[in-house]
Amino acid sequence: ATTPSANTTTPHPISNAAMPSANTTTPHPISNAATTPHPISNAAMPSANTTTPHPISNAAMPSAKTTTLHPTSNTTAPTNHTTPAVHPTTTVGPTLSPKPSPPEIGNYTIMEKEKICIMALLGTKLIVKSKEKKESYFNIVPNVPKPTGLCNEHTSFLHLGFSGGYANFTFTKDKSQYYVSATEAELDPVRLEIKSLNEKHHGKIEKQKLFSAKQGNSYKCKSKETVHLGEPLDLVTIGAQLQAFDFNNGHFGKEDECSTDRNRRIIVPIAVVACIVGLLIIAFLAYLIGRKRSTGGYQCI
């Protein structure tokens, strides 16, 4: 009775319970959603095959392609359009104008042996008169090209050149003062491509005493000053401050005011005072006349 009972009890728990439990427990933590409702061995096999390839191939590829292409194509396109737009603006130059306009103030400095020998702040324009007495105006653009000059002990030279001409100033040192002894200018309409003029205009005056100041001082004139260089050509300066020779630490010396500014500074207050006095006199006379008329209407009894 003991032998058959031992043979029938041992095979049943080994083959039916242990084998499927080992196969079904390993795939469940790997898969995310498909394996949870089916704990049997038949549902575990397809879930392991379907879950692994989909998140790797479908999610990574489109995200890398869409984010990298768009910013690179948008930023490089506008850079190609901005570069050629700068070049046409550099070719525009000054020309004659039928109406006057204030010239730009230029800052000019001439060095000699690493020391300043000429300093100039001024706006410059040329006036051309035609045979019909019509005036045309040409403003000299500062530092186009850069000014040049020469300096000696008693003579200094400032040259303001441009594409269609030049303006020159010669400074002379004489005893206790200095001044501009010669002024020269030229305007070539051919080089400026001015169709209204067909000849070169040139003018020069010498042995003059213009823009004079004491040695070590600077000449200053805010007003407009006109230098007649000849029949067709005039040179006009405005907002000028000039100095040649005897600089102190590279700065302008004491200002010597021009006669035009000085007269204007004196005449304007005098004119204001005269107007006030005139108004007071008129008011006083009106008061006397009104009082006389009011007293004349009464008669003594």
TrEMBL record:
The chain crosses the membrane at residues 266-289. It is a single-pass type I membrane protein. Residues 71-95 have a biased composition (Low complexity). Residues 1-102 are annotated as: Disordered. It comes from the Eukaryota. GO terms for cellular component: late endosome membrane; lysosomal membrane; plasma membrane. It is found in: Endosome membrane; Lysosome membrane. Belongs to the LAMP family. PANTHER family: LYSOSOME-ASSOCIATED MEMBRANE GLYCOPROTEIN (PTHR11506), LYSOSOME-ASSOCIATED MEMBRANE GLYCOPROTEIN 3 (PTHR11506:SF30). This is Uncharacterized protein. It comes from Latimeria chalumnae (Coelacanth). The lineage of its organism: Eukaryota, Metazoa, Chordata, Craniata, Vertebrata.
